[in-house]
Every structure is written in C-alpha cells, then in structure tokens.
Automatic annotation (TrEMBL):
Protein's name according to its UniProt entry: Thiopurine S-methyltransferase (TPMT)
Top-level taxon: Bacteria
Source organism phylogeny: Bacteria, Pseudomonadati, Bacteroidota, Cytophagia, Cytophagales
Biological process annotations from GO: methylation
Positions in coiled-coil regions: none
GO function term, MF aspect, one: S-adenosylmethionine-dependent methyltransferase activity
Alphabetized Gene3D superfamilies for the sequence: Vaccinia Virus protein VP39 (3.40.50.150)
Keyword set, alphabetical order: Methyltransferase, Phosphoprotein, S-adenosyl-L-methionine, Transferase
Length: 200
C-alpha cells in the first residue's frame, strides 16, 4: 500500500498520460553518468533505482553491460517506455511496485536517487531514509542528487535543504559526499546536492 493516497499510482499514471513530466530530462544526467563512468567495468553489483520513471540511467547501465539493475516505479507507463527503448532489459528487473513495500530480501549494493525523494510527501522522508538503508547491505551506497532549494509552486517537487536532509540520513549512513553538485544540468545548477552515503 502506498503510504499517502494523494500521490498514489493513479496520480503518477495521470502525470505520464498528460505528458506533465517536467522532471524528465530525456537522457541520463551528468551527475549520475559521471559517477557510473568512474565505477569502471560492469560487475555483479546489485543496483536499485526506485521511483525510476523512464529510467535513462538504467538503460545506460544495461547498455554498458551491468547485469543486475532493478528499476521500481508505481506507474506502468514509464516502465513500458523503458521496455520499448531497451527490449533486452530483463523484464523481471522491471518492478511496478511501491518502494516502501519492497522487502529487504537480497540486499542491494547501490541505490540510485534522482527526483524520487522530492516527489514524495516530505513527511515520508524519514521513512525513505530508513527504507533505503534496509534495502542496502552494510557498506552499500546511496548515491544520487537531492534538490537543495525551495520551489514557489506547491509540490511535487518538494524542496528542502542540506541541513534538513542530514537529519534523516545520519542515523543509517556515513556521509562520503554531501555537497552541491558541480556537474548539474543548467536548470538545476547550484540547486542540487550530489550525495554519496555509505550504509553503516
Ligand atoms: C518525479 S518522477 C522522477 C522519475 C525519475 N527518477 C526521473 O528522474 O526522471 C517520480 C517517480 O516516482 C514514482 N513514484 C512515486 N511514488 C512512488 C513509490 N511510493 N514507489 C515507487 N515509485 C514511486 C512516480 O511514478 C514517478 O515515476
């Protein structure tokens, strides 16, 4: 069950159906791309991308040969779009599910965040940090970008600050990197943090 019905699967399906997807950059973004490039050749790492949307980063990793990339989204439409763009992406790695309902069976090594955290009601932020930690192995990494800005329109996206986010993640993670990204897309420049957190 989604914890907040007002931003439920139907809401997100409707956003995709109406092409109200301003968050969708149409390609992998530089902060994620640069991080993946420095990982080196593909290995057996288990990678989870929650609230993945059209998941250009999953398509990139798959094309590079990373074998275990799992994308999760409550909406069917973006997953179908990924399947259309990358037909050889394993269907069993396309999960139409609620991130908060994922069971921590086999832990992941890497969890990738981009505009999922900001799409959730802010009251869910502590639960996001807890669930991310539950799904990672000790020493596993939560990597990605978080908005460090406020928005004038009602959310989603919901803004926030580095100081606020620190509180949510500190109980579960060591902070390897938590600074303003230097390689953001121009509209996001100076307004997002690049985060690399290691599960305790
Ligand atoms: C703002 S979009 C971001 C999509 C993608 N990360 C990107 O950067 O293009 C938020 C996504 O999270 C999905 N979503 C919202 N709540 C979710 C939940 N509880 N579990 C899984 N996915 C969820 C939505 O369907 C939507 O695709």
């Amino acid at each position: 069950m989604l914890p907040d019905s007002s931003l439920n699967a139907a809401y997100w399906e409707q956003r995709y159906a109406a092409s109200q997807t301003a968050w969708d950059t149409g390609a992998i973004t530089p902060p994620l791309l640069d991080y993946f490039v420095q990982l080196g050749p593909p290995d057996a790492r288990r990678i989870l991308i929650p609230g993945a949307g059209r998941a250009y980063e999953a398509e990139y990793l798959h094309t590079q040969g990373w074998p275990h990339v799992v994308v999760v989204d409550v909406a069917a439409a973006p997953l179908a779009d990924l399947h259309r763009r990358a037909p050889s992406f394993p269907e069993e790695h396309l999960l139409q599910q609620d991130f908060f309902a994922l069971a921590p069976d086999t832990p992941y090594d890497l969890l990738v965040e981009q505009t999922f955290f900001c799409a959730l009601k802010p009251k869910l932020r502590p639960a996001y940090a807890r669930q991310a930690a539950q799904l990672l192995r000790p020493g596993g990494t939560l990597m990605g970008v978080l908005f460090d800005t406020t928005f004038s329109q009602p959310g989603p996206p919901f803004g926030g600050s580095r100081e606020e986010y620190h509180e949510y993640f500190a109980p579960y993670f060591d902070f390897v990197h938590f600074e303003t990204a230097t390689n953001s897309l121009p509209p996001r420049s100076g307004r997002e943090l690049f985060i690399c957190l290691r599960k305790k």
